[in-house]
């Protein structure tokens, strides 16, 4: 994780500007998320500069928003005046929270950029209540246009830590194979196809 953390630390100051190109898709994402988090205790992993958390906090009961990058969290804390929103530096593979602490876990646009994303899902399963909801929207690259694939190639050259190239269908299958029932899904149009997924824990046999 050290190499990718360095990438995000270096780019924390320009992250919000970079994401503006997908503002329309993120607007749709917020509309999908607000009813899910309403009056719920929420954990967000890979919050970055806190774009999602800051847009949802008025609906949620409380949000713990975390990221592995100290520089991203420093950016996220700027301007945050909500007592319901707390930012901290955490490793999504080793979270400090007790079992079944949260009603909702959000991990947005992160599972494709971490090694061994199945381990992250296992840790999410631990901290999520049995009746809780995992929301895991993720950019998918394998079913993108030629121009998108070229863009991804140059992002990788620049150090962008892309570990998984899923199609939207492959991504949903990955979630199912790792213990999750996909209850709702859609694909949002963005710079890369954004596969939105709401999931429940599969019952253990």
TrEMBL record:
| Entry GO MF terms | methyltransferase activity
| Annotated source species | Paratractidigestivibacter faecalis
- Keyword check for Lipoprotein, yes or no: no
Q: Does the keyword Transferase apply?
A: yes
Task: Provide the protein name.
Answer: Class I SAM-dependent methyltransferase
Supply the enzyme class, top level.
Answer: transferase
The family database entries (InterPro entries) matched by this protein are listed as: Methyltransf_11, SAM-dependent_MTases_sf
Q: Which residues form the Methyltransferase type domain?
A: 43-135
Question: Which keywords, in A-to-Z order, does the entry hold?
Answer: Methyltransferase, Transferase
Q: Which GO terms describe its biological process?
A: methylation
Q: What is its EC number?
A: 2.1.1.-
Q: Which domain of life is it from?
A: Bacteria
